[in-house]
Amino acid sequence: MSELNSKIPEGPLAEKWDNYKEHAKLVNPANKRKLEVIVVGTGLAGAAAAASLAELGYQVKAFCFQDSPRRAHSIAAQGGINAAKNYKNDGDSVFRLFYDTIKGGDFRAREANVYRLATESRNIIDQCVAQGVPFAREYGGLLDNRSFGGSQVSRTFYARGQTGQQLLLGAYGALERQIGLGNVKMYSRHEMVEVVTIEGKARGIIARNLITGQLERYFGHAVILASGGYGNVFFLSTNAMGSNVTAAWKAHKKGAYFANPCYTQIHPTCIPVTGDYQSKLTLMSESLRNDGRVWVPKTKEDAKAIREGKKTAVDIKEEDRDYYLERKYPSFGNLCPRDIASRAAKEACDDGRGIVPSGLGVFLDFADAIKRLGVDVVKARYGELFPMYQNITNEDPLKTPMKIYPAVHYTMGGLWVDYELMTSVQGLYCLGEANFSDHGANRLGASALMQGLADGYFVIPYTIGNYLSSEIFVKSIPTDHPAFVEAEKEAKERAEKLIGTKGKKTVDDFHKELGKIMWEYCGMARTAEGLTHARKLIQNLRKEFWSNVNIPGSLDEFNPEFDKAGRVADFIELGELMVIDALNRNESCGGHFRTEYQDAGEAKRDDEKYAYVAAWEHKAVDADPVLHKEELVYENIKLQVRSYK
Amino acid sequence: MQNSVLIKSSIGKKLIMGLTGLFLIFFLVVHASINGCIWFNDGGETFLFYAHFMGTNFLVHIAEVGLFAGLILHIVDGLLLWKQNRDARPGKYAYSNPSANSKWYSRSMGILGTLILFFLIVHLRNFWGPNRLNQISTGEELNLFQLMQEDFSNVWMVIFYVAACFSLFWHLLHGFKSAFQSLGLNNVKYNKAIEIAGTAFAIIVPLVFALMPISFYFGWVK
Amino acid sequence: MKFNLKVWRQKNAKAQGKLVDYTIDNINADMSFLEMVDVLNDNLTRKGEDPIAFDHDCREGICGMCSMYISGRAHGPHHAATTCQLYMRSFKDGETIYVEPFRAGAFPIIKDLVTDRSAFDRIIAKGGFVSVNTGQAQDANNLPVDKADAEKAMDAAACIGCGACVAACPNSAAMLFVSAKISQLALLPQGAPEKNNRAINMVNQMDEEGFGNCTNIGACEAECPKEIKLTNIARMNREYLVASLINE
Question: Domain B10-83+103-217, what architecture?
C-alpha cells in the first residue's frame, strides 16, 4: 500500500545492513576514477562523505557557502555523540540504542534505518579516535561517557562542550587531506542554487560564486546534498546565520519529495530571548541537564516577584520550588527527551510561573551538583559552557541558576530518502540533517552527530556504489548541455527578479515576519485553526516579498544581502509546506504537538491513521503539494505510548 | 620525503636568532665578569691580567671570530625578519592598540638591537679597535684600564654608555626567555624559572655594565 | 547608547579602501557587536546605501568566521571572545570605535571587513590530519591516551581558525594557528607516525603563504579567543627542529 519504495533490504532487522552490503553492486577502482560526485555542504555528513568517497577513488567536488569547510554549523554542537559501545558496562547494546532512538522519535522513524544507525555508531567512535579527535578520557586513558536525555545508560562520548567542533575538525582534516591529494576539488563561498537533471537523473548543480556573484555550472554523475536543517525558517533559532534550506528546497522543486517538514525540534535549554534586535538564540548543551535541575516557583506570586526583580532564586525556599520535570517524569527526571522538556517549560510559563521579565524562562540550577561534586568538577565537566553563558547574560551560573527557555534547534524533517539515502530523484542523495530519515518526530540528544557521520562515513560510500555501478558508461557531460543552460537561466532570471524588485522592506523584515508566523502557529503548540490562518499569512507574505523586497547592490559582486534574500525566498515557500504538513497530521507526536490531540498535556499519537511518513511532492508554488505516504512498518518493536514517567 | 631548508624557514630563522642570542648572552657573562675585576680596586691589576689573557690567547682569538660571526648572523637574521615581517602586512591598520596585548620592548627588538649596534660601533672604536691596531702595529697591548679611566671621565660618554645599557636591558628582557621559547624549551614546569632567570639576567648584566663607567666617573675605582 | 564608528569600507579586492564615519544611536548594552552592526546595516539599507560586508555565521563563538579588528584589537577589547561574543556593554557610551578587517598579506580583503583566509585551509591540507581512511580504525579503547595529554591536546584542538593570532601579531605570523594543530596531533599517539612530515610540510606551507615570522611577542596568545597557549609554538619549534634534523 506504500506508494514510495524505501528499498529496505530483506531479512531480520539485525542482518539487513550486512545483507545489503554483501549484495550491493561494486565499482572497480579504475572506474571510480572516472566517476564524479558533487557534495553540497561540508558539515559532518558532507565532509565525511566527500572525504570517504575521495578515499575510495571517486572524483569529488565539494561546495560550501562559508569561507572554509571547517565552519559548517556542525561545529556548534556541544554535548556529545551517542554510540552503543557499552564501555560503561551498564547494559547498553545496539538494540537498546535503536530502541531508544525509535522511542525518542515517538515511533515515527524507519526501523531499518535506525538499526543501521545504531550499528554504525560504534564504528564512528573508532574512526574519530583514529583521526585524533580528543575525546574526554578517564584517568586510565580510556574513553569517558556521560548520559544524555532519553536514555538510561551512559553512551555519550564527548570532547568538553565542543564535541561537534572536534568531530567536524576530524572530518575536515580528512577532507583537507583529500583536497591536498587532489582527489577533492573544494569550492568554498559557493552556494548551490539549482540541481541539474538530465533524463530524470541528477547530473550536476548550478552554484553561485558568492565572491563574484557569477553563476557556475558543475557536472557530477551523482549529487549529494548534505546542506543541513531548516531551523532558520523561524528566524530566531540556534542555527548559524547562514544555515538555510536553499539546496534542499531547490532539489524539492526539481522533484525530490520533502518529508515530515512539520517535525521541528524545540530545544529546552537555550538562553531566553531578551530583545527584538536579537539575531540568534544560543543553546546551552543538553548535557547540562545531567547535573542541572530545572525548576520554577510553585506559586505565581513568587514567580512574579522574581520577574519584577523583588526576589531572586535563592529567596525561594526548597519546598516552594517546583522541580517539575522530576515531579512529572520521576524515572527520567531532568533527562527526559527534548520535546517533553520543552513542552513542560512552556506549560509552566503559560501557567504564569516564568522567571524572566518576558515571562518565558525557567531556572536550570547547579547548586546541588556544586554541593555534591564541588565547583571545580562542575566547571571542568562543562568546559566553556559556563563562561559562554556568563558572557552573554552577565550572570555567573555557578552563583545564580541559569535562566533557560526552549528555542528552535533542529529539524527532523527533510528530503525524503530511501534506505540508500537516495531522494526521489535518481542519483540525488541527501545526508545528515537535510534528510528526514532517522529521528522520527523527535531527535534524542547526541544523535545528530551520530547520524551525520554515519551517513557520511559509513552509509553513502556503500550505497552510492550500487547506483554508480550502472553509470560507468556515462562520460562526463559537458556543462554546455541544454539542461545546464536551462537551469542556469532559471537561476539567473530568479536572481534578476529579486534584485530588480527594489521595494521598501528589507530582507530581514520579511524573515522576522515569517519567523513570527511560524513560531506563533507552527511552534511548540499548533492548532488546525492557527495553521489554516498561518498558511494565508505566509502566502500573503510571499506575494509581498516578491513585490516589495529591497536588496541593495548588484548581482556581480560580493553581496550578502542578496544571498540572504534568496534563502528567505525559499524559507517562505518551505514555511507554507510546514504548515500544510502540520495541518495534515491530525495527531501529536514528538516535536509536532497539536493542541487538539493530547492526553492531559502529553502528546496523543494516532498510530492507526498517521503511522506514515508524509512525503510531499512539489507541483507549483501556488498549487497544493501532493502527499505521498510511506507506511511505517514495525516488525521488531511494539508501538506504545511513549512514557518517561 | 620533502626536504626542508631549515635555515630558510621561518622557524629556522627563529632558531638562529635564539641560538646566536644565547651565545651572545654567554659572551656578556664572560665580558661582564672580566670587566667586573675593576672593582678589585687594585689599579686594574686583576682586570689587566685577564684582559691580557683574552687579548693574546690563541683559542680566544678563534672564539672571537666566532663571536663576530654570531653577532653578524644575529644582525642579518634580525634584518631579514624585520623586512619579511614588515612585508607580511602590506596594508597597515589605521588604528591599533598593541599595548593591550603585548610589551613594547617585545615589539621593538629591531630598534633596540639597532641602538645596541650603534653603541657597539662606538664601543669597539673606543677599546677593542685601538687595542687590536696597536697589537698589530707594535705587538703590544694598550692599557685598557687606563683607557677606561680616560674615556669615562667624559660625562657624555658615561651617559651614552648608561643609555646603551638600558637598550640592552630591554633587549635582554625579551630576548632571554624568547630564546628558550624559540628553541622549544618551553615547559609549563620551568617557564616560571626561565622567566625569573631572564628578568634577573636582564637587570643584573646591564646594571653591572652601567656601573663601570659610573664607577670610573665618580672615582669609585682607582 | 550612542557610538561613533569608523569603519573600513573597500568595494572589492582591488579597490582603494578608506575609513568611513557612521553614528549610531539607541544601542542596547546587551546587544552583541554584530547585532549593533546589523542595526547599522539595516539603517544603511533603508537609506539606499550599501551595507557593510562582514563575515559571521554561528554567532556563538565557535565557527571562527567573524573577524573584525575593533578598537585596535583582534575581536575587540573583550578577553577570550570572538567578535560575535563581544557585547556593547564592553564600550563606553559615546565612544569612537574603529572597525577594520583582519589585516595580513596572506589574508587579502574581499570586500569591506571580509577577508580570504583560505591560506589556513591550505596549511591544514598539508598535514593537519591523521592519514586514516574511513574503515581502517581499530577499536577506540585499544589505544589508551594519558588523560593529561588528552587534555592538552584538547586545549590545542580548541582553535577555531579565525585568524585573530595573525591579525594581532605585529609580524602577521600564523604560528599559533599552525602550532595548535601540530601540537594536538603531536600529543596524541595517533599523530605519531606522521609527526615529522607533518611539522615540515605544514610549516613550509605556512611560509609559502606569506605569513610573517614569529618573534615571541605573545600578542597572539593574548588575543586568541580560545586561549591557545604559546607553549604550542614552542612544541612546534621542537617538532620542526627534530624533524628537519632527522628527515632524509
Answer: Up-down Bundle (1.20)
